[in-house]
Design goal:
The chain is of the alpha+beta class and about 450 residues long. Helix content is about 55%, strand content about 15%. The model has no long low-confidence stretch (mean pLDDT about 80).
Length: about 450
Amino acid sequence: MRPTDLLRTSAFRLTLVYLAVLGVFGFVGFRFLYSASLEALQEESRQIVEAELKGLSEHYGTLGPRLLRRIIDRRASFEGPSLYLLIDRRGRKVAGNLAAWPEAAQESGDWHDFHYRRVHDGEPPHRHTARAYVADLPDGFRLLVAHDIGEEIALTRRIVIFGAAAGGLIVLAGLAAGILVSRDLRRRAEAVDETGRRIMEDGDLSRRVPVTGRGDEFDDLATSVNRMLARIEVLMSELREVTDDIAHDLRRPLARLHARLEDVLRGPVDAGTYRGALADTAVEVRELIDTFNMLLAIARAESGSEAAVAVDLAGLAEDLVELHQPLAEECGIALEFVREAGSVPEIEGQPELLAQALSNLIDNAVKYTPAGGRVSITAGPAGVAVADNGPGIAPRDRERAMDRFVRLDPSRHLPGNGLGLALAAAAARRHNARLVLADAAPGREPPGLRASLEFPSP
C-alpha cells in the first residue's frame, strides 16, 4: 500500500480531526496554565516590591532622607534581585544600586517594566529586566523600588518551550498512531474487499472474511458478512437444486404432452380424437400452471415482500374447514374443527399465504386418508395442527418431505407436484414459525400424520 493511499483513509482523516480538536483544547489549556503561572509570578514580584516600598516610605517619614539613604545603601550592597534608587528634587541620585533613573519608569503610582544594568556590573553581556514601582516622597524626593524578573522571564520561556515541545510530541505521536491504526484498519478492510473480489471473479461462495478474534466492530462486520455469504451459498445451492428439480419434474409432463400431440397429428383426422386430446392436454397444462403458481407462492413466502396484517388463526382455520368440507364428504372422510382451551394467538402475518399453507395441509390430509377416516384441524395456544389417520410419513423422511418436488414412494401414484409441504414450510419460516411433522397416533397402525404450524410465544 502506497503512503498516499494511507493518507486518504478515513481512519487517518479521523486521526487528523482528533488531533485538531486535541490541539485546540490543548492550546486553550496551555494558554490558561501560562497565564495563571505568569500572573502568579507577577503577583509575587509585586508583593515583594510593595512590601519594601511600604517599609522604606515609613522609614523616610520617621527617620528622614539621611537615614533612609543609609538603609537603601545597606540593602543595595547585598547581591540580589532587589533594586533601589532614591533621587532628590533636582533628579540627582541620593542612594541605590541603579546608575540612573530608567526612562520607562517616569510616572509615579504605577508599575513599570524596564531594562537596566547595575552600577558595579560594568557592561553586562545582556540586559536585565526589572519590574518597578515609583513613589513620590515629601520634599521632592522620589523613590523607585524594583525587583529583577529575569527568573520569571526565564521560567515563562521554559514553559513556552516545554509546551511547544509537548505539543510537537503529541502531534508526532498522534500522526504515528494514526498511521498505525490506518494501516491496521486498511489491512482489515482490504481483507473484506479481497474476499468480495475473489467471489466475484471465480464465483466461489465458500470463501469467508477472516475473523481476527479481537471481538471488535470489524470482527462483528466480518461475522455478519460471513453469515450473509453462508446464507447466499445456501440459497444458491437451493436455487440450483430447484432448477434441477424443475427440469426433472417438468420434463415428463412436457414429454407426455409432446407425445400425445404427435400421436394425434399422426392419427386420422377425427373431431372426437382431437377433442379428447385437447381435453387431456388442458389437464396437463393446468397441472403445469398449478406447479408454477405454487413455485411463485413459495418465492413470495421466502421473500417476505407482502405487508403483514393481524391474522386470526382460529377464524382462518375454521373458514378453511368449512371450505374443504364438500371435498371431504365426497371422499367419505369426516372433517372437523377443534378449538383447544386457551387463547389462540393472533399474529402479524400474511393471511393469503397462511391460508394457502393450511389449505395444502388439509388437502394432503384428505388425499392420503382412506375413506371412512377422520381429519381434524386443531387451533390452540401453540398454533394450528392438521391430523389424519392415514399412512403417515416415516421419521427418516420427514425433513426431506418438506423439500421442493419431493414425493415419497407411496404417494407417487396420486396426483400432485410435491410442493404442498414445501410451501407450508416456507410460510412457517416467513412467520418465524415451524412446520413440525409427527405421528398423529403414536404406537398405532397406521400412525397417521400430524402437521403443526407452531408459532413462537408472544
